[in-house]
Design a protein that fits this description.
Layout (H helix, E strand, L loop, with lengths): L9 E4 L4 H4 L4 E4 L5 H7 L5 E4 L10 H21 L4 E5 L11 E4 L12 H15 L14 H8 L7 E7 L2 E2 L6 H10 L5 E2 L5 E2 L2 E2 H14 L9 E5 L5 E2 H11 L8 E2 L1 H17 L10 H8 L2 E3 L2 H7 L7 H12 L2
Parallel strand pairs: 1-2, 3-4, 4-6, 5-14, 6-11, 7-10, 8-13
Antiparallel strand pairs: 9-12
Helix pairs in contact: 2-3, 3-4, 9-10
């Protein structure tokens, strides 16, 4: 989307992306845990979209925090060192999920105080850092200077970083390497069960809607903008009944529907037991059920995007039916 509207784009990631390079995107390869590499990537840039993260429900806690929390600190530092004007951070609604149903939740929800996985815990720390960094003065010569010194060196205007955080929920669509492929693998293996009663309502975010929200947020961002220093839920127009939506997708893909159910309390208990066993041996990989997964699959978590509409004009452009058709078409190629 950035390229299509004429912006110069640089991508910093773990690998290069030939498809992006063919349309004129500069690709820099590096690790977000490497502060020098991140600093180099942010040179001569006016806007940073920080979308990098280790996502998942299992793995070493230390690694999640090194990538998601310390990596974000590196991004903030790079923005300050390079006098970047805007930082838009891709967060997650999981930072407010406390294990209970959330229906049409808004930004008044506080960050959760208990996390059953390292991913949301590390993202919570990172989001708080980004919001706190709003309005920070840029760093010159890799040290913080008094306002008078910055004015003396760079004129009368002190440069300040403007930040905001977006919380897209369950991003889906063509090219999704996580959510839908995982569901397909599980149903094909006969391992997917409906956890809970199956009536939980969940917000989803089609990829085009998520990307558009990032561009709108960045365009509006400024030191005195309404979205400066704020966090926003981003999702499609209406939530879906999760298990009905999954079975509708499977029907379109000619896959068997999910009929078997697992009571939430049983799934939670099984997850707790499996976590204990899998913690004892890293060779076992990822457990098929965890407490966090049980809660995510059984509880309602729907969110309002009204604040994003008010502050920077966000509105979902792709509806659920159109998104499903595009996804099925891509999967059937």
């Amino acid at each position: 989307m950035l390229v299509e509207r004429g912006d110069r784009v640089r991508v910093f990631g773990r690998s290069s992306y030939p498809r992006l390079e063919r349309v004129g995107v500069e690709c820099m390869v590096g690790d977000i845990r490497d502060s020098q590499a991140v600093n180099q990537a942010a040179r001569h840039v006016d806007t940073v979209f920080h979308v990098a993260a280790l996502a998942g429900v299992w793995g070493p806690r230390r690694t999640f925090f090194e990538i998601n929390s310390r990596g974000t600190a590196n991004v903030i530092q790079a923005c300050l060192l390079n006098r970047v004007q805007k930082l838009v951070y891709t967060s997650t609604p999981s930072v407010v999920f406390n294990g209970r149903d959330i229906v049409e939740g808004d930004e008044e929800l506080p960050h959760a105080t208990r996390f059953l996985a390292a991913y949301p815990a590390s993202k919570s720390v990172a989001e708080k850092m980004v919001i706190e960094a709003n309005g920070w003065e840029s760093v010159v010569e890799e040290k913080r200077l008094a306002e008078s010194e910055i004015k003396q060196r760079h004129g009368s205007t002190v440069h300040r970083l403007s930040t905001c955080a977006l919380r897209p929920h369950l991003i889906w669509g063509p090219g999704d390497p996580h959510l839908v492929p995982r569901l397909i693998r599980m149903v094909e293996a006969g391992r997917l069960k409906c956890v809970g009663g199956g009536a939980n309502r969940v917000s989803l975010t089609y990829i085009d809607n998520a990307a558009r929200a990032h561009l709108l947020a960045a365009d509006a961002l400024a030191p005195d903008a309404a979205n400066a220093g704020q966090a926003y839920f981003i999702n499609d127009r209406e939530p879906v009944v999760l298990w009905d939506w999954i079975n509708d997708l499977f029907r379109r893909l000619r896959l068997p529907p999910v009929k078997r159910k697992l009571p939430f309390r049983l799934a939670y208990a099984v997850g707790a037991g499996l976590e204990l066993v899998y913690h004892l041996s890293s060779r076992l990989g990822e457990p098929p059920m965890t407490r966090f997964v049980a809660e995510q699959m059984a509880k309602s978590h729907s969110f309002s995007w009204r604040k994003a509409a008010r502050d920077f004009g966000y509105e979902p452009l792709v509806d659920n039916e159109s998104g499903l058709r595009k996804l099925v078409e891509a999967l059937n190629k």
